[in-house]
Amino acid sequence: MIIGTFNHGWPWNDADFFYGRGMYMWTIMANLFLSSANVRTSRRDPVPPNNNPTLADIFEICQKGKLCFADAVLGTRVGVPTVVNAATQSILVNGMYQWTDYKDEHLNSMGAAGLLDDNVQGITAFIRRTPSIQHIYFSFATGGAWLIGLKNAIAASFPAINSGSIFTPTGNGFGNNLPEPFNQRAWSIAHHWVWNNMGHATVPVMNPNYTHLDHSWLIRNGVNPNNF
After folding, report:
1. Other beta carbons within 10 Å of 51
2. pLDDT of residue 161
3. Which residues 6+ apart lie within 8 Å of 132 measured at CB?
4. How far are the Cα atoms of 31, 119, 191, 193 from residue 53, in angstroms, in the given order?
5. Are strands 97-99 and 90-93 parallel, antiparallel or unpaired?
6. Under a CB-based contact definition with an 8 Å cutoff, are residues 44 and 51 in contact?
7. Which H helix or E strand runs over 128?
8. If you placed Cys at 196, which of 121, 139, 179, 212 could pair as Cys (CB 3.0 to 4.6 Å)?
C-alpha cells in the first residue's frame, strides 16, 4: 500500500491517477515492473501529453505489484468555506488561508489550524480488513508535525507490517543526481527506493529518514533489483 498526502479536486488539476501529474511515480514504477531496467527518464504528465506510461500500463503495474493507494488527508473539513479563484489558481479557505499550490506545507498549516479532515480512520479500517497488505510505503517523510502525526498514527496501528517512507516521487528536495549510471533524476530516485540502507556495492545510499522497497516483493514480480 502506498500512502500519499492529498490530491485536490481543483478545476486546474489534470492528474488522471494517483501521482499522475508531473511526477516520477509511474516513470519509476514502469521501469521497475514493465521493463526491469532504467529506460524512462521523464516525469509523467497528461497535459502536455507525456502519458508514458499510459493508464493501461499503470493498471498493469498495479495488478503485477498488487498495489493499492490512499491519501492521509480527506480534504477541507465539512462546513469550512472555500472560495475558488480560477484566474489565480488558488483557494481561499475559511476566509483566511490562501491555498496556492500542491506543497505539503499548506496541508500541515491548515491541518494544524483545524481546517482539514484526516483519513487515518478510513485507512486503518481498510488495512485491518485487507490482511494481504504486507508493506505500507508513505510517499512523504517530512512536511510538518500535523502530517507526520498522521503518518505515525497509521504506522503505529500496525507494528507487524513493514512500513516507512520512500523518497517523494515529486523529486523535490532530492538534491544532486547520483553518479553514473544513475545520473537521471528518475533513475536516481529509483536507486534510492531500491537500495537505501541496503549497502549497494557501487553507489551506496544511506538515508535514515527513508526505507527501501522490499526486495523479495520486487523479485517475485519480475524486478531485478541489481538493474537499479
Report:
1. 17
2. 97
3. 66
4. 9, 29, 19, 19
5. antiparallel
6. yes
7. helix 120-128
8. 212
Cell of 228: 537499479
Q: What is the mean pLDDT of residues 190-218?
A: 96
CA distances from 114 to 54, 62, 110, 183, 200 (A): 38, 34, 6, 42, 43
191 near 228, Cβ under 8 Å?
yes
Q: Which three cell numbers stand for residue 162?
A: 513493514
Residue 10: what pLDDT? Answer: 80
Neighbours of 67 (CB within 10 A): 16
Q: Is the pTM of this model over 0.85?
A: yes
Euclidean distance between CA atoms 99 and 107, whole angstroms: 9
The percent of residues in the chain predicted with pLDDT above 90, rounded, is: 81
